[in-house]
Design goal:
The complex is a heterodimer of chains A (273) and B (310). With 273 residues, chain A is α+β, with helices and mostly antiparallel strands. Chain A is built from five helices and ten strands, in the order ααβααβββββββββα. Chain A has one domain. The longest helix of chain A is centred in the C-terminal third of the chain and has 15 residues. Chain B has one domain. The chains are: A alpha+beta (273), B alpha+beta (310).
């Protein structure tokens, strides 16, 4: 049964902030400060410095395994007919609809991943801020994206692209990123939920304290979904000693991996056309 | 080859909007001389003189219709004491130069200056299906980038696409429109790693020597060439790049390849100039295998060019 919880975001954020350390600690050795409650945070000025290498917290659904729920399908609104058709046709990588041996995903073809999918994968990522721009670097397929903070507006008629065009601005303590101009070749998540060319993606970032970044993903895609899809904020931990490692998806390496690992274990191989 | 190029252009314009990466038109290179050793030595000596004179003389590049094609006035001899800026930031684009009028020479790694190959290097070179040059066979061209394998240094440094330098504390970042690639050059004083795992981009550190930013990279894999001719890049390749911002609008880049396993001597290419493009931003351009396969069907096969994908 779907829960259409109508809680205010502020209350939800407060709840999440207090429950942050019910998360599986796993082998997080370094001491992590409790993120402050949202209520208290509004009277303090949170840092506008978001820079660092970040890694999402594992959370309770699958202990020891990052849940990848920055886009939370339990909160997904109903699909439009177009969205439903795309969803049904997708062969998801995970979730109840995934069929062993038949998974498909753009990533298996070494297609580039883009937001929001790119934002929810459990790999290190890094924020670098310079005047007029914020960069995000993802270990996932060595992807980088630019968020323009020079005051320019979103483009009115962008060509579809893998990463979209992103602009960002500050609202008090929150860095708000808006992205349009996506193509429809990447899912919004790993369950096959669609991303259409009409998607308007909003991300909201707050550095709750030195070691904790809060990220919230809000999807407006009237072509795919009948309502705005608001996922609960997700917390990321600062990893001060980490550096983004090189990780490319090269089809020649995928083919070797198919031969040596996937086929023998009965997993889906890189699809060939 | 020219007929193939024309076919490609015609077919592409008929096809309309087809968002795939556009291969640079393959230039017809003149027959490469195989230079005897003493001639190479002479050329290398001349190189040092040419390199020095580049600072002081106006540069005679192939003039296209773009009025800004000529680098802004180079320093006069009496300005030699003024230090060059350590600010390398900006979007850069290599100048076209004289080898093939109207087409960038892609000669940041310059075949005319390649030292003799070792026996092992020769075998690698012979077995490569070159994309360009005298060894290239129409219909059989190959290059890892055609299969959307990542393009790393030095190949990514010589392709005629916009690229950008951003300097931040402890690092210099380079962004390439080519395959949306980025690389990090560590400037925090760390040494090169002792035993790096092979990778597409290698591991880079950089430091300043006076006016020159010197980048050193090791830890390459051997899955791509140093150029488009099939000259090998291996796990023992050591790449040095030297950058100088000659003036606000001009960046000089020199590429030096050392790999005793493949080349009998260091391979020192002449410096190449890049123009600042203040109005440009790096566009998104991914090489996507699925799109490449479609492009093969629609364009390359009909044009008689080797398909990119197998």
């Amino acid at each position: 049964m779907r829960h259409q919880l109508k809680v205010s975001l502020g209350a939800f954020a407060a709840l999440l902030a207090f429950s942050a350390f019910a998360f599986a600690q796993g082998n997080q050795a370094s001491a992590t400060k409790q993120p402050t409650a949202a209520g208290a945070a509004t009277t303090e000025h949170l840092s506008h410095d978001l820079s660092g290498v970040w890694m999402q917290y594992d959370d309770g659904t699958a202990p020891g395994f990052a849940r990848m729920n920055g886009v939370d399908d339990r909160r997904r609104p109903p699909l439009t007919p177009w969205g439903q058709a795309k969803f049904d046709a997708a062969k998801p990588l995970m979730g109840p609809r995934a069929v062993g041996g038949q998974e498909d995903s753009a990533a298996l073809h070494c297609d580039p991943s883009g937001p929001p999918q790119l934002l929810i994968l459990p790999n290190p990522w890094e924020i670098v801020q310079i005047p007029g721009r914020t960069f995000m670097f993802f270990e996932e397929y060595h992807i980088w994206r630019t968020i323009w903070t020079d005051g320019r507006p979103l483009p009115t008629d962008p060509d579809p692209s893998w990463l979209g065009t992103a602009v960002g601005h500050w609202e008090g303590d929150t860095f708000v990123v808006e992205t349009v101009g996506f193509n429809d070749k990447v899912w919004a998540d790993l369950s096959g939920n669609p991303r259409s060319e009409e998607m308007h993606l909003t991300e909201r970032y707050r550095r709750l304290n030195h070691d904790t970044l809060e990220q919230q993903i809000i999807i407006d895609d009237p072509k795919s979904y009948t309502k705005t899809w608001v996922s609960p904020p997700k917390l990321h931990k600062l990893e001060p000693t980490w550096e983004i490692a090189e990780w490319f998806c090269a089809s020649s390496e995928l083919q070797t991996y198919d031969k040596d690992v996937r086929k023998p274990s009965g997993g889906a191989t890189q699809p060939s056309k | 080859m020219k007929e193939v190029q024309e076919k490609i252009s015609r077919t592409r314009s008929q096809l309309g909007d087809f968002s795939v990466p556009i291969l640079p038109l393959l230039p017809q290179f003149p027959e490469l001389p195989s230079l005897p050793y003493h001639r190479q030595k002479f050329l290398r000596m001349r190189l040092a003189i040419v390199g020095a004179s580049l600072i002081f003389s106006p540069l005679g590049f192939a003039q296209s219709s773009a009025e800004t094609n000529k680098p802004a006035g180079a320093a006069h001899p009496q300005d030699a004491t003024v230090p060059l800026s350590h600010d390398l930031s900006g979007v850069w684009m290599q100048y076209k130069d004289g080898d093939v009028p109207g087409t960038p020479g892609m000669n940041g790694v310059n075949e005319h200056f390649r030292p003799p190959l070792t026996q092992w290097g020769k075998e690698k070179f012979e077995s490569a299906s070159a994309l360009q040059g005298e060894k290239a066979v129409a219909g059989k061209e190959d290059n890892s980038a055609l299969r959307c394998e990542p393009s790393g240094p030095p190949q990514v440094l010589i392709l005629p696409n916009p690229w950008e330098i951003v300097q931040i504390p402890g690092r210099v970042l380079m962004f390439f429109e080519e395959q949306h690639i980025w690389r990090e050059i560590w400037t925090d004083g760390r040494p090169l790693p002792k035993d790096p795992d092979p990778s597409w981009l290698g591991y880079s550190v950089g430091h300043w020597e006076g006016d020159t930013f010197v980048v050193e990279t090791i830890g390459f894999n051997d899955k791509e060439w140093v150029d488009l001719y099939g000259n090998p890049r291996t796990s023992t390749t050591r790449l040095t790049e030297r950058y100088r911002r000659l003036n606000r609008d001009t960046l000089e880049q020199q590429i030096i390849i050392e790999d005793p396993r493949a080349y009998t001597k260091p391979w020192v290419s002449p410096p190449k100039l890049h123009k600042l493009e203040p109005g440009w931003e790096i566009a998104e351009w991914f090489c996507v295998l699925d799109e490449n396969k479609d492009y093969d069907q629609a364009v390359r096969k009909p044009a008689g060019v080797a398909p990119a994908t197998k």
